[in-house]
C-alpha cells in the first residue's frame, strides 16, 4: 500500500486559494489518488479523484505531476465552511482490494 | 438514492451487552466496508465485503462480527466490547472494480462502551 504524507495543519483566510500537497512516493501503476473532506462527527465526503495530469470539478482541482509521486488539491476561494480535515488516499478502490489507506490528514482552518 | 445510511447514530453499551450496527445503501454498489475512527485520527479499515462475501478482515478482534445479508445491507455485531472500542464506526460502499470513483461514506455510529 502506498503511504501518504500530508501537512498536519494549514491556516487560510476567506476568499483565498488553498493548495494542499500529498506525497506518495511508492504509488503503484494501478493506483488512483482520491481526496476526501471530513467534518467533525461525520463520514468523509468524496471531493475529487484523478490518475494523472489535472482534474477539475465544481469544487476543486487536482494536480498530479508526470511521476505521480505527489498530488496537490486546490480549493479556490475558500470560505469558513471549508474548515475541515482533508485526506489524501492512494489505492485501487475495487471489490477485490479495497485497501486504500488513509493518511493522517490535513486540518484546514479558514479564518474570517 | 446516493446515500449510505447508518443506524443508530449514537449507541451506549455495557461491556456485557450485545448490540448491532446497521448500514444500508441503494446505489447498486457491490463493495461495502466498515471503518473505525478514533478522535483526531484517520479512519482505519476493519472489514471489506465484496459481492456479499467477506474479502478482507484487518485482524479485527472476534468481538466484532460483520455480516452482509444482501447487497444493500451490512451489519456489525458487537459483543463483549471494551471501553477502548469506543469510537466512530463508519460504513462505506463503492462501485465494482472496473471504475474508480471512491467511497461513499455514511455519517457513522458514535459508540460509547461503558
* Biggest sheet layout of chain A: 6 strands, mixed
**Oligomerization state:** heterodimer
**Helical percent range of chain A?**
under 10%
Query: What's the number of helices of chain B?
Result: 0
Outline of this structure?
The complex is a heterodimer of chains A (112) and B (114). With 112 residues, chain A is mostly beta strands.
SSE order and pairing:
The complex is a heterodimer of chains A (112) and B (114).
Chain A: E1 9-13, E2 18-23, E3 32-38, E4 45-50, E5 53-56, E6 61-64, E7 70-75, E8 84-91, E9 101-102, E10 106-111
Parallel strand pairs in A: 1-10
Antiparallel strand pairs in A: 2-7, 3-4, 3-8, 5-6, 6-7, 8-9, 8-10
Chain B: E1 4-7, E2 10-13, E3 18-25, E4 31-37, E5 44-50, E6 53-57, E7 64-70, E8 73-79, E9 87-94, E10 104-105, E11 109-113
Parallel strand pairs in B: 2-11
Antiparallel strand pairs in B: 1-3, 3-8, 4-5, 4-9, 5-6, 7-8, 9-10, 9-11
Pick out its properties:
heterodimer, A: 112 residues, mainly beta, six-stranded mixed sheet, four-stranded antiparallel sheet, 0% helix, globular, B: 114 residues, seven-stranded mixed sheet
Structure description:
The complex is a heterodimer of chains A (112) and B (114). Chain A has 112 residues and is mainly beta. Helix content of chain A is 0%, strand content 48%. Chain A contains no helices and ten strands. Chain A has strands spanning 9-13, 18-23, 32-38, 45-50, 53-56, 61-64, 70-75, 84-91, 101-102, 106-111. In chain A, strands 1, 3, 4, 8, 9 and 10 form a six-stranded mixed sheet that branches. In chain A, a hairpin with a 4-residue loop joins strand 5 and strand 6. Chain A is globular and about 40 Å long. The N and C termini of chain A lie far apart (39 Å). In chain B, a hairpin with a 6-residue loop joins strand 4 and strand 5 (44-50). Chain B contains no helices and eleven strands. In chain B, the strands form two sheets. In chain B, strands 2, 4, 5, 6, 9, 10 and 11 form a seven-stranded mixed sheet that branches. In chain B, strands 1-3-8-7 form a four-stranded antiparallel sheet, with no helix packed on it. The mean pLDDT of chain B is 92. Chain B is an all-beta fold. Classes of the chains: A mainly beta (112), B mainly beta (114). The interface between A and B is medium-sized, with 26 and 32 residues.
Amino acid at each position: 500500500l502506498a503511504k501518504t504524507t500530508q501537512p498536519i495543519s494549514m491556516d487560510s483566510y476567506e476568499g483565498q486559494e488553498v493548495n494542499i500537497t500529498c506525497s506518495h512516493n511508492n504509488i503503484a501503476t494501478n493506483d488512483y489518488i482520491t481526496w476526501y473532506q471530513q467534518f467533525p462527527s461525520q463520514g468523509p465526503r468524496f471531493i475529487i479523484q484523478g490518475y494523472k495530469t489535472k482534474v477539475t470539478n465544481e469544487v476543486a482541482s487536482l494536480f498530479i505531476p508526470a511521476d505521480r509521486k505527489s498530488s496537490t488539491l486546490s480549493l479556490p476561494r475558500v470560505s469558513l465552511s471549508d474548515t475541515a480535515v482533508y485526506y489524501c488516499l492512494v489505492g485501487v478502490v475495487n471489490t477485490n482490494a479495497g485497501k486504500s489507506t488513509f493518511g493522517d490528514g490535513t486540518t484546514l482552518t479558514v479564518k474570517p | 438514492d446516493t446515500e449510505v445510511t447508518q443506524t443508530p447514530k449514537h449507541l451506549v453499551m455495557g461491556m456485557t451487552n450485545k448490540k448491532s450496527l446497521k448500514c444500508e445503501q441503494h446505489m447498486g454498489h457491490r463493495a461495502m466496508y466498515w471503518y473505525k475512527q478514533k478522535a483526531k485520527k484517520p479512519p482505519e479499515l476493519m472489514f471489506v465485503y465484496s459481492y456479499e462475501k467477506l474479502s478482507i478482515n484487518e485482524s479485527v478482534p472476534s468481538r466484532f462480527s460483520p455480516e452482509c445479508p444482501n447487497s444493500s445491507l451490512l451489519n456489525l455485531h458487537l459483543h463483549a466490547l471494551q471501553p477502548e472500542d469506543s469510537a466512530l464506526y463508519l460504513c462505506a460502499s463503492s462501485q465494482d472494480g472496473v471504475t474508480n470513483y471512491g467511497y461513499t461514506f455514511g455519517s457513522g455510529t458514535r459508540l460509547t462502551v461503558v
